[in-house]
Design brief:
The complex is a heterodimer. Chain A has eleven helices and nine strands. By secondary structure, chain A is an alpha+beta fold. Chain A folds into two domains: 92 residues; 229 residues, 2-Layer Sandwich (BirA Bifunctional Protein, domain 2). In chain A, helix 2 runs antiparallel to helix 4. Chain A is rod-shaped, with a radius of gyration of 45 Å. Chain B is α+β, with helices and mostly antiparallel strands. Chain B has five domains: 68 residues, Phenylalanyl-tRNA Synthetase, Chain B, domain 1 (2-Layer Sandwich), CATH 3.30.56; 204 residues, Phenylalanyl-tRNA Synthetase, Chain B, domain 3, CATH 3.50.40.10; 51 residues, no CATH class; 195 residues, BirA Bifunctional Protein, domain 2 (2-Layer Sandwich), CATH 3.30.930.10; 90 residues, Alpha-Beta Plaits. In chain B, 28% of the residues lie in helices and 27% in strands. In chain B, strands 19, 22, 23, 24, 25, 26, 27 and 28 form an eight-stranded mixed beta sheet that branches. In chain B, strands 4-7-10-11-12 form a five-stranded mixed beta sheet. In chain B, strands 5, 6, 13, 14 and 15 form a five-stranded antiparallel beta sheet that branches. The chains are: A alpha+beta, B alpha+beta.
């Protein structure tokens, strides 16, 4: 090993060490200048020393310097690229979004839970071929009571504490007057299939009762309508409204405008019939009243009860909304607290 | 209503558990709401519907249970050993109005010893929550709860004329105007002819079918009793009870319809019990004035095939026969055996339930005893669709959807409010009187709202009080007003209220103001197919200078809405409201057709016009429209600025314009030509010239 080749070896090691210490563009620039500077670069001066090398060693020396030069240039390029990549990454890091920041939600509003349930019920019945009818909230005695087979003064009227106006009219106690108006209007051409949703009023105000609440009633009148049709319709309805597992139970009861009449219990939507606190461990919830339209009511509306029969049913929308949305108190439905209203979805 | 199982057990053998009995009763329409074991007895709390007064007693409920469990009914018996003296020698009846009192019977029991009841009697009454008074009165109550027939015992010696040789007179008549009666409860009551009384020859001694009189009641001094057992017409008892505000066990039954045939046998049963517990003897014979309605008993035809078609069931002849027979109906089979058709006679205790009877009443009896559980589920076989939805219904749906899309939460408020709020809030029907309630729950709910805003504003305040930084509520509903001459108005209306700061700085917060609400008005107009115009107006309840009336373009004479800032500044930030009378706007009718966008590039131009503050936008807008070339596709307000660089009393209005053609590309030059003309025109008309200051509003 010649002295010159030993020196080249030492220089190569020195370069590798220095290169491994390059951390940024500045130290890279310094290294490049030190080794490949056109005027005072180490490589330049190594070549300049050729004349001092023994002629028999010149070839080896020249080749050794060239190898070193190639190595230095390769390594510098490599380092430069690595630095550029790091710089690019650093720059991108500055620019990148914090994608976990909260988005700006559009100001969407919300429908009242009662409207939502109402629409759901309307959808179910329009799919079953019903239309939607509505009518006035201020009614007269005829449409609210008399035509529904409540004789004047009869205690059955006390089942529905009525709010009267000073002009002698009254606030409808149920949406049944809409059924009467529909039958009177369409007496000539049954079949009739309607639902009648709307606000109703009773003189009743406590924790469980609101003086204003919402009902939807249904009516079907045609030839040959049976009690089985009522049962089947209500079953189809509650299965769509709650879940396919929901069952119903009819219990005979009394309403002046239906004969026979039935209270309808549905299996508790919370425990699906097993019994829980919500249904007082019975597994059932009473949510509907129903029955076959009393022939006197049909006849009073001009519909021949010997030819046509019909069924009617009604339920409280508020109650269903409370069940569906877990609203503990009916009064909360009318507080209009936006913190509650704006949670209502779907 | 409370029933004792042991007592029912006197009339029917009960081998089932109390829970089984409760389930059977419930499935037959007599809902058992509760069971309570007390000593050796079980108390049933049964919800008896108003059509079943016949079940408001133990015998009646026993009859139902006998049918439901297939047992025999054992009604109580009355064994009388009458004295020789005739009842007619001591009392006589004068029924003035047999329609109101179709039957009146009386028995007389002499030489009773009034005192405490024996324990068995007191215990039975106390078990069902009735107080023991004395042996005679307790018997009348006992028989009421046993048979359902209300009875009343008079102290015979206190009736006018009872000490003479001639019989004492018992009259049934309407009270006279101003007549008074001290009733058993110690109250002196003022009567009138709408109330039926029992009277002696001189004065009223009892309210017919409701309550006895104080002066003729049975006390420990009493030795001779006149026992009344009568039948009163439901309507006269309903009227009397209501007028006097007096609700009694007797009245409860007569109002719903008692059994006209029960009077005498129940009375005999009571007389026998009185003799048993208070001694004495029953006079021979009875007083019985009876003039029942000619349409009683009701008779109906029943056809098994029709019954089964109605119920969708297969019930056989024997079930029909056993049901009706057990319930006390009489059946006359028609034709072959087994019968499929019958003539059915309704028992007297169901006379009122079968008022104007229809065959459906009979179907109900069979079906409820059978139970509804096996009825098959079917759907009505009706082809085709029903009627289309009403336009108003669809309109309300569109309006709700739009307000939700605009970020509002739907509220539902009560439809009644207090007079002051109704008066204070802006109303489109303010010129009409409100409809007042006759029996409001409280003064807070005294009148029907003439505007949705009265309660909607209260709801907004409720949210403000709970710290809401922003409020955005709407309601769609009816408002009401007196239409005059006994008529009423009830109108579809929408209203909304908003105020506060929406969002955070991060969310680019925004202070809700008048123009936010106006924007909702104008966008709703698109949904309703109309164009709204607003003009400044003085609106009660809204702040002066920040209130407008809304009408439909081209129909300025009819106000369809109001818009503005609420005058009352109670809350932490101002509230803005809108109300629109949907019925005045009408149903959405406008064309739905869209305009295809131009295929050619558009050219946008802005201009800033410095004009006096008094110049109104609608005038600027009209000038632009009047000038309008078909190439001017859009224009609008881009910004408004007052402050540094703008003279005092003036405002910079920046307008944006968009030019385009459907047929070709416009050149910048022709747009400039056109636009410069328009700009000049605007500048001429509205431009701010300080020297013109003080010369009044610069409007065209």
């Amino acid at each position: 090993m010649t002295a010159s080749s030993t020196e080249l070896q030492r220089l190569a090691e020195k370069f590798e060490t220095a290169a491994s210490e390059v951390k940024d563009r500045m130290s890279w620039d310094a290294l490049r200048l030190e080794w490949t500077g056109r005027k005072q670069g180490l490589l330049k001066s190594l070549l300049g020393r050729m004349k001092d090398i023994l002629p028999e060693e010149r070839r080896d020396y020249g080749q050794g310097v060239n190898r070193l030069k190639v190595r230095v240039e390769e390594r510098l390029t490599e380092l430069s690229e690595a630095l550029a990549t790091a710089e690019r990454q650093a720059e991108q890091g500055q620019r990148a979004l914090d994608v976990t920041l909260p988005g700006r939600q559009p100001a969407v509003g919300s429908l009242h839970p009662i409207t939502r349930v109402n629409r759901e019920i309307e959808t179910i019945f329009t799919e079953l071929g019903y239309s939607v009818a509505d009518g006035p909230e201020i009614e007269d005695d005829f449409h609210n009571f008399e035509a529904l087979n409540f004789p004047p003064g009869h205690p059955a009227r006390e089942m529905q504490d009525t709010l009267f106006l000073e002009n002698g009219m009254l606030l409808r106690t149920h949406t049944s007057p809409v059924q009467i108006r529909t039958m009177l209007k369409r007496a000539e051409n049954p079949p009739i299939r309607v639902i009648c949703p709307g606000r109703v009023y009773r003189n009743d105000n406590d924790l469980r009762h609101s003086p204003m609440f919402h009902q939807v009633e249904g009516l079907a009148v045609a030839e040959g309508i049976t009690l089985g049709d009522l049962k089947g319709t209500l079953e189809a309805f509650v299965k769509r409204l709650f879940s396919a597992e929901t069952g119903i139970r009819l219990r005979p009861s009394f309403f002046p405008f239906t004969e026979p009449s039935a209270e309808v219990d549905v299996t508790c939507p919370f425990c699906t019939g097993g019994g829980c606190a919500v249904c007082s461990q019975t597994g059932w919830m009473e949510i509907l009243g129903s029955g076959m339209v009393d022939p006197r009511v049909l006849a009073g509306c001009g519909i021949d009860p010997d030819r046509y029969s019909g069924f009617a049913f009604g339920l409280g929308i508020d109650r269903v909304a409370m069940i569906k949305y877990g609203i503990p108190n009916i009064r909360m439905l009318f507080d209009n607290d936006e913190r509650m209203l704006r949670q209502v979805r779907g | 209503m409370i029933f004792s199982r042991n007592w029912i057990g006197d009339y029917v053998e009960l081998s089932e558990t109390a829970q089984q009995l409760a389930d059977r009763l419930t499935s037959a329409g007599l809902a058992v709401d509760g069971l309570e074991t007390v000593d050796d007895d079980v108390l049933f709390d049964v919800d008896i519907t108003t059509n079943r007064p016949d079940c408001m007693n133990h015998l009646g409920l026993a009859r139902e249970l006998a049918v439901l469990t297939g047992k025999a009914l054992k009604p109580p018996e009355a064994q009388l050993e009458p004295a020789s003296e005739l009842v007619s020698s001591v009392a006589e009846l004068v029924i003035e109005d047999p329609e109101l009192c179709p039957r009146y019977t009386a028995l007389v029991i002499r030489d009773v010893t009034v005192g405490p009841s024996p324990p068995w009697l007191a215990k039975r009454l106390e078990a069902i929550g009735s107080r023991s008074i004395n042996n005679v009165v307790d018997v009348t109550n006992y028989v009421l709860w046993e048979t359902g027939q209300p009875l009343h015992a008079f102290d015979l010696d206190r009736l006018a004329g009872s000490s003479t040789d001639s019989p004492a007179q018992v009259q049934v008549r309407r009270a006279t105007d101003g007549e008074t009666l001290k009733t058993l409860d110690g109250e002196t009551r003022k009567l009138d002819p709408s109330i039926l009384v029992i009277a002696d020859a001189e004065q009223a001694i009892a309210l017919g079918g409701i309550m006895g009189g104080f002066d003729s009641e049975v006390t420990t001094e009493t030795s001779n009793v006149l026992l009344e057992s009568a039948h009163f017409d439901p309507r006269i008892v309903q009227k009397g009870s209501k007028k006097l505000g007096l609700h009694t066990d007797a009245g409860h039954r007569f109002e719903r319809g008692a059994d006209p045939e029960a009077c005498l046998w129940a009375s005999r049963r009571a007389a026998a019990l009185i003799v048993q517990v208070a001694g004495g003897e029953v006079l021979a014979g009875e007083l019985d004035a009876k003039q029942l309605r000619s349409d009683w008993p009701h008779v109906l035809e029943l056809d098994l095939g029709k019954l089964n078609r109605f119920g969708g069931l297969e019930i056989d002849s024997s079930e029909v026969e056993s049901t009706f027979t057990g319930l006390g109906f009489e059946l006359e089979p028609q034709g072959e055996s087994p019968a499929t058709r019958w003539r059915v006679t309704v028992p007297s205790w169901r006379a009122y339930d079968f008022e104007d009877p229809r065959v459906a009443d009979l179907y109900e009896e069979v079906l409820r005893i059978h139970g509804f559980d096996d009825i098959p589920s079917t759907l009505p076989q009706i082809g085709g669709a029903d009627a289309p939805a009403r336009g108003e219904h669809l309109r309300a749906r569109k309006v709700r959807d739009h307000l939700v899309a605009c970020g509002f939460a739907e509220a539902i408020d009560f439809a009644f409010t207090d007079r002051a709020s109704d008066q204070a809030c802006p109303s489109l029907y303010g010129d009409l009187e409100p409809l007042a309630l006759q029996n409001p729950l409280s003064d807070r709910y005294a009148v029907m709202r003439r505007s949705l805003l009265s309660n909607l504003l209260a709801s907004a305040r409720y949210n403000q009080r709970r710290g809401a930084a922003v409020v955005r509520l709407f309601e769609v509903g009816h408002v009401f007003a007196d239409g005059g001459g006994g008529s009423k108005l009830e109108m579809d209306t929408v209203a909304w209220v908003a105020g506060g700061r929406l969002g955070t700085p991060w969310e680019r917060e925004h202070e809700v103001d008048f123009y936010d609400l106006k924007g909702v008005v104008d966008s709703l107009a698109l949904v309703l197919g109309v164009t709204f115009v607003s003009r400044p107006a003085a609106v009660p309840g809204l702040m002066e200078g920040a209130a407008a009336e809304i009408s439909i373009e081209g129909a300025d004479d009819q106000v369809v809405g109001v818009l503005g800032q609420v005058a009352d500044e109670d809350g932490p930030y101002p509230l803005f409201v809108v109300e629109i009378a949907l019925d005045r706007v009408g149903l959405p009718t406008g064309s739905l057709a869209i305009q295809a966008p131009s295929k050619y590039p558009a050219i946008a131009v802005d201009m800033t016009l410095t004009h006096a503050v008094s110049v109104v936008w609608s005038d600027i807008e009209r000038t632009i429209r009047d000038q309008g070339a078909s190439e001017l596709k859009e224009y609008g307000l881009k910004d408004r600025y007052r402050g540094k660089g703008v003279p005092e009393g003036a405002v910079n209005t920046t307008l944006s314009f968009l030019y385009n053609s459907d047929h070709r590309s416009l050149s910048q030059e022709e747009v400039n030509n056109y636009h410069d003309g328009l700009a000049r025109k605007l500048e001429e008309r509205f431009g701010y010239h300080p020297e013109a200051r003080g010369s009044g509003p610069q409007t065209v």
